[in-house]
Amino acid sequence: MDLLEEYRRATFFFESGDPLGAAKLLEPIVEAEPRNTAVRQLLARAYFNSAQLGRAEAHLRALVAHDPSDHYAHHVLGRTLERDGRFREALPHLRLAAAMKHHSDYQDALHRVEQWLGKAEDSQ
């Protein structure tokens, strides 16, 4: 199997709106090259986009453990936890991402979770 060609095919599937197809192509590549962060990140995003949040979380936690300064991995991990309704767990990752890099998506996600948590605390 030509891993580079499979990665290119997976990227095409992902960008064409088929995250499940992309994930199927990426899984054996990650198995063959577990330290390849680009492949692992795309697989995590494919899982996120196909609502396989537990799988996305596992790969994103591996990325963050490998490189704690990876702002994008923190952001997507925070978004994954947010999407799973785990707002308190999402908040530190979203804060880190927003502190490491000024990006409107990062700020929006952080504000959304902070607002949700503020509303949840107000109702208690």
Tell me what portion of residues adopts beta-strand conformation. under 5%
Helix content: over 70%
Count of individual domains: 2
**Topology order in helix (H) and strand (E) letters:** HHHHHHH
Shape: elongated
Mean pLDDT: 95
Structure classification? mainly alpha
Query: Low-confidence stretches at least 5 residues in length (pLDDT < 50)?
Result: none
Q: What is the CA–CA distance across the termini? A: 56 Å
| Biggest sheet descriptor | none
Radius of gyration: 15 Å
| Total E-strand runs | 0
**Tally of helical runs:** 7
Pfam family, one: TPR_19
Protein name: Tetratricopeptide repeat protein
Task: Tell me what the structure shows.
Pfam families: TPR_19. It comes from Paractinoplanes brasiliensis. This is Tetratricopeptide repeat protein. There is one protein chain. The chain is mostly helical and 124 residues long. The chain has two domains: 1-56, Serine Threonine Protein Phosphatase 5, Tetratricopeptide repeat (Alpha Horseshoe), CATH 1.25.40; 68-124, no CATH class. The chain contains seven helices and no strands. The chain has helices spanning 3-15, 19-32, 37-49, 53-66, 71-83, 87-100, 104-122. It is elongated. The model has no long low-confidence stretch (mean pLDDT 95).
